[in-house]
## 1
Amino acid sequence: MDPDLPRGAAGYLVAVPVAALCCLLPLLPLPAPVAGAHWLGAPVDWPKVGLLAFLHGCWESLAQGLPSPCLRLFRLLLRRPGPPGRPPARPDVNAFFPVLFAGVLMLPPAAAALVAAPAALLGAADPTCRRRQVWNGSQLALSAFTASVVFHRLAGPQLLLGSRFPAALLPGCAALAAFCLVNGVLVGAMRLLAEGPRRPSAHRRAAAVPGLPVLVHAAGGLMVAVLWQGPYGAFAALLALLPLSISAWVFAQGHRERDAHQATVQALVQAVEIKDSYTRGHSERVGRASVLIAGQLGMEAERLRTLRYAGVLHDVGKLGVATELLRRNGPLTEAERRAVEVHPVHGYELVRGISFLGEAHAGILHHHERMDGRGYPSGLAGEQIPEFARIISVADAFDSMTSTRSYRRGRPVTEAVAELERCSGSQFDPVMVRALVDALAVHDWQPVLPPPDTIRAVPDIPLGVPEPVRAAPRGVPAQGGGSVPTAGPS
């Protein structure tokens, strides 16, 4: 089981593949035909099943931007590794359904379910990814089995063989509805179990219905089935798949572009972490906390992805700040503090030419604004502050308070939440603070701690208590006795 999943979701991850295996039982020799459903134990055209399964695996690989099963088998036989930099398999992506739906229309239910198996078994090498890939293939097998049962119950095969249109469209549409319903219920249940019932986005995504691509793929599957059983056979069906292959290739290009975006963001974050040791891990945690807040608000998936980029890159402007100021343990002069506080502007200037960041630009520039207008760099107040910036401000302060710095140990989550609530309305948006509190009730937050010997050398000072006097650099008077910054610049 996946250790990152709740117990219910981990059990569900096992139960769905077991149910899919049960759907394959009719492929075993039956002692007697099933009453009223002779097609359950009908003879199976194994060459057709094998070819459809192979084609499904090939087009799934194309849609995910992965090498085809033929190429992987060829490399395995020659013991040649794949090219470096190849992106990993995406177990949550199965986007090419025409071949699978053609199997639903042409094969008995158990054989239609079997078509989904090779794509699941040949997809990933990582053990954790493999479990999810198997689950994904299993839920598609269950969906195909149910759709094929519905199609056979409505006498779809007879209408399809006789090319009786539009009468054959009724069982086809019913089979498509059954496929989408079962697929949606299985995926929605997994999301609810994994994310928790109190997360609004989980409810909305669980109730999501397939869109236009599935309808187009279903029409392609119907075309493949009609041509395959016509006078030209499988060759004509393969020609029908060629136009749809373009859409699969475009889909894969979209994933490659996202991989490139992620690599760009990671390179910028790594540059900041090398310069400022404190930010090591801080940027990723701020991105994660920002997504938790936005998830409670029901933000759509595309904006969530952009928000995570903004959270991860919120401190990228520190590349324009002197390294000595970032690493200093002592106090800063007023001029030095102003030099540090200009880092949001530096960050915006660094990333404003990266078009895919979109709303993230404003989040990076304004994440140190305050609701009362006393923040920087623009002194915006209330709703004038962009939504991304209000989210990142809360996430940044929360991780800063729960992380250990050179002058203060990280505080417990409950103490940090109490401080956020105290500053709610003046420094932070109350809506964002409440969203983070609700998210923490569902998701466990464990900041990465430094080595024990390092922690013992750091003072354990509660939030709001004056910090001890610290040594000042040469030429600067020693300072101390001021209140510990609870949610200031990180």
## 2
Amino acid sequence: MDTDLPRGAAGYLVAVPVAALCCLLPLLPLPAPLAGPHWLGDPVDWPKVGLLAFLHGCWESLAQGLPSPCLRLVRLLLRRPRPHGRPPARPDVNAFFPVLFAGVLMLPPAAAALVAAPAALLGAAEPTCRRRQVWNGSQLALSAFAASVVFHRLAGPQLLLGSRFPAALLPGCAALAAFCLVNGVLVGAMRLLADGPRRPSAHRPPAHRPSAHRPPAHRRAAAVPGLPVLVHAAGGLMVAVLWQGPYGAFAALLALLPLSISAWVFAQGHRERDAHQATVQALVQAVEIKDAYTRGHSERVGRASVLIAGQLGMEAERLRTLRYAGVLHDVGKLGVATELLRRNGPLTEAERRAVEVHPVHGYELVRGIAFLGEAHAGILHHHERMDGRGYPSGLAGEQIPEFARIISVADAFDSMTSTRSYRRGRPVTEAVAELERCSGSQFDPVMVRALVDALAVHDWQPVLPPPDTIGAVPDIPLGVPEPVRAAPRGVPAQGGGSVPTAGPS
């Protein structure tokens, strides 16, 4: 939900909060013709609504690893700033729903929608996240409203109040399905409007793109309710049953304790992943400062590696580690002389060997970072070749780790489609043809095919030079000898060699 949203998405960003406000109208004293069914908004137990909204806000803060509303209120009254080093708000992570589901089961629909609002609207968001925060709260309010309507229409409150089980489970399951459906539709529509229709890649004809009609895996999975939602729904049902029992809200709070532990663990996992990302980003920035060519190259190699692995069906945890490996594959350039990395002319044999040792430097730099796991081998061996003529270990075929075989293809592809000082980036079609030509000798054919299939679904644009320098960069097709380039003093001028596909980049 950035500031440069398309017009349709910007309008949708306003329409959803307006619709959420309309859901709250039954709480107002409206004339009889406009009031609608009485069960939509009254009678309302306002202390229960306030307590549920407060508890929902507290547990949402806990799940997001943020200060609770009470702590933020105390700091506001004492005029104390937020402590330095505190992670920013995560308005896209609304991970704790038991209290919200309890409101769906115990309150009229309009009041159930109101429970979701304070947690989103009063959260500790950065100013740039405020619109996203409002939208998240609004779509949760609409989802809660729809779920509560379904629950009431199926006589859920009467069955729940009388503890008529398992009959009360049917309206509860229907309410959960309505919540997930409305939430999925609202989020899916925003993604569709924000991203726009995906343009098919033009590097292959339609006959070679049998899977082009299929959405990416993460979009297909987003429509399926996950296990945490089902667990939270069961927790919400337990809270509602205990709350309406002889011990009231106190027993309901005790029921939340086990789920609170899971929410805290979830938040710690997010913090750990954020710390991992910060570590990786710091290393990448250090390399980009030293070698201007890698600016953006590392991220693109990480993205291309994930595209390849996605076609192979790699599991999510390994995908995350592979992306780290792709982003950090050139971190060993920190151990290579800056003059060698920035030179436009040819290198002597000794200088080339000094550059080719960068995978070893990279491995030495990151081998103590435990969370990288398989990424260590990917960084060390990403310049190996299938025919055994690569470096640093001369591995061949299946001896080369899977991560390294993936990164090798992704690295070469981005190198060929990126503009350097001595050659413009080549079109995707030309880069793909070169990968296929070297398939089996330099690259793993399975990884090359996976990249080709991924490019049929995901658009990839070559990195073009700035408009004011495009005339100074030679437009040399792959495989055509490069022109003779000026050599540094004391080194013979060289030229006429073939353009490398996956040299030390």
## 3
Amino acid sequence: MGRQLSALDAQFLNFETATNVAHIASLAVLEDASVTRAGIIGLLRSRLHLAPPLKRRLVRVPFGLDHPYWDESQDVDFDYHVRELALPAPGDDHQLAEQVARLHARRLDRHRPLWEMYLIHGLQGGRSAVYTKVHHAAIDGIAGAEVLATLMDVTPEPREVPPSEEPSVRAPEPAIMLSRGVERFLDSPQALLRFVAGAIPRLDEIPVVSQIPGTGMVSRFIRGAGWPGDTGSVLPDLPRLTVPATPFSGPISPHRRFAFGRLPLDEVKKIKNERGVTVNDVVLAVAATALRRWLSKRDELPVEPLVVGIPFSSNVRPELGNQVLLATTTLPTDVADPETRLRMISANMATVKERFSVAPARWLLDFSQAMPAALSGLADRAAFRLASGTVSAMNLMVSNVPGPQLPLYILGSRIVAHYPLSVITDVSGGMNITVFSYDGFLDVGIVVDREMVPDVWDVIDYMRDALAEL
């Protein structure tokens, strides 16, 4: 039986436009220049079965009646997917980031497996780098880190990997795909009713909708009245979120900038332990301080706090596809004292966690599953245009992805840093800060719209200052 994209997987395909792209990526910086393109291709050939998303291509259902399927019936064209380039001298970090930003802005070819890998030569200090991007329809952030980890080793000597005995994933015959699509279409009204029943008691946690005056009161009333879709549990109230205007709000361009840097994990943990907060609280506080300074420098600091989207994965079963949940909360950039900012962030996140521990925020998953597959593309794009053209859902996204606390190697070359890159959209804002913990550091990658944030490296510098201040 073929594996079909989930409704949320398909949603990541549907919202892509000339300016909104939906792949996630990483930049692994290597200590030397010993890795070759031929070596990477050989490693991928021998371990491709450990990373199934890298060998799957999309197969469309006739007439678009249902979500696409994954198929592994064709060989992977490694000459296409694995490329190499060199930076001009001197090959500094800014040149590397500029090149990676250009690569990150380009859409992936949907007629091939949805990934590309670039070996980049010419870095200062005799180093090299590997930039890898994979479509969000194929993986989420956690799964993406796991996929890349299968191609790495914990020792300089590459490990032996036994060949796969698992059968390849094949897409069903067109007639079978059509019959399943008809069956799903007939169930769509019931799925839509289930979504409405589950969503109405929790309108106060859905971006854009939660900003409508009175939404929180309506949600509380419905929950108290014993709405049929409610679990009957008492949910903690969430504050009404008003998204202020910032230089990185509104529709984005097709162009990107990228900056990266490192924060010592032991310093972050020291703050965590002394203040009784979490690593994620410290990350958000550092981001808040950096953004406050950046906005103040431009004389564009809003009087209201920023609203931040925090994606996280509940994907304990990768075979089900993306299981991304999204929390939104305030980022108190309006507060001058850094200690107070940290305490407020910790309290906000405690409320979000309490809310989600009672009933996880599955509105994004449920919404995507409620739409008839044959109409979901049009519905997703229409909802996306409506949200981006009226009121922003949030100012930016901040993600914190856990990673290994030991050095990893690619073909004997040590990975000295591993920077993440994620998605910016018209709806989520023109800035995304993603943090990946690796070998004693928090490796920070910031992706922005090129026109909105021309001085993105300043944000990296301000984050270092913010950590020192705490």
## 4
Amino acid sequence: MSEPDLARNLETLDGYLARFRDTGIRNRIAGADRDGGGGVFQTTSPVDESLICDVARSDAGDVDAAARAAAAAFPAWRDMPATERRRILIDVAEAIEARAEEIALCECWDTGQTLRFMSKAALRGAENFRYFAGQVTSARDGQNLPSPTLVNITTRTPIGPVGVITPWNTPFMLSTWKIAPALAAGCTVVHKPAEASPLTARLLVEIAEEAGLPPGVLNVVNGYGEDAGRALTEHPAIKAIAFVGESRTGSLITKQGADTLKRVHLELGGKNPVIVFDDADLERALDAVIFMIYSINGERCTSSSRLLVQDTIKEDFEARLVERVNNIKVGHPLDPATEVGPLVTREHFDKVTGYFDIARADGATIAAGGGRMGEEGFFVKPTLFTDATNDMRCAREEIFGPVLTSIPFGTEEEALRIANDTDYGLTGYVWTNDLTRALRVTDRLEAGMIWVNSENVRHLPTPFGGVKASGMGRDGGDWSFEFYMEQKHIGFATGAHKIMRLGAG
């Protein structure tokens, strides 16, 4: 443990949290703080279960006020010159960078994510704002589609006030990922962060308003999905819902928004395969396999939670995997040396650790980990299941923790069959030095995103999203604007073309 660094980070964090202990986290609606109609709930740290602060618990009345504020702010924000909106979003990006340390430390304490990864959360959030700020001036551009009698042009207009519902795993980055393109498109936003991670959502709205975002353009309502979340998805003033979370909740959101014909974008779960063929660069493949399941505490939708390893290399690859997994540093999230921190809540801790007995009962071997770390907090040993088959629950259900299931295969055809035998289809990872094999496998792999000889490397202009139970819609580049904007067609006659005359005798 890096004792001086940890002590310094804890002292700095205490200064950042002092005001929340005094005032709690309130809703932010139309540029003003507001108590929750449902009273308060408490947010605690997964490190030691200590209280962080009280949080406003929103009810339908709070959501209605926020939706009305977003609707009232929408015309002016929509009609603001693009260059001015771009300047504001750039100012937001710069303000995020200026408070990067505060964002990172608060996020680590609130969620259990490690400083090793969250130190970059603010920078990625700023990158999201800066990238979409660069797209503002062209976001409404359309096409010229001439026909024999018309000049047909298209344009895009912002859809209106939108709801953004974000998860607890990397909340700040994922919030900016949704909110930045919505604002760039000209929409106003009502944001409901996950109840387990409200701290950095509060920081984001403060930062945005201080950077010049007009009141009511971004509103934050805290609370639970069954109260605030449902009220948001059902509110008639909200024209679209962008959601990141589990598949079951995504299904509920689709149903709740149906009566108001709400557009939905769903970024949901995954049980993603990483396929390692025996001709791969095995050292790099090993690094990528470990990184994509044990980083971010395994709490990431794109994690490669199923390892499909060719039987000719299985024994050696798994032996090396066990050695590395047992060497992963689990500890305090504010210690820069820590690689895996505590899981976010007791409920989630119980879910993840419950799979240890499930895997044993199904016949899998726990080759590494399989227990908790210490007696305080929600720390779990990085875990590896071997001797698994794809019909076991540990291979089919999204565990969403630092748990990897290894499944052997013999042939390319078998690898594809196992990989696609899942309800999910978010990502896939393929390791091979055979180009033609890579082309065949990626063509048949049922996933919205696939990386070959690489971990997940996000490039903002590319589409991000899944198929099957992993969601619908795409984030990134122009795909984000397709969700937050409406297409409009306008046809101009180029002459007096013949119009059919009815009732003229």
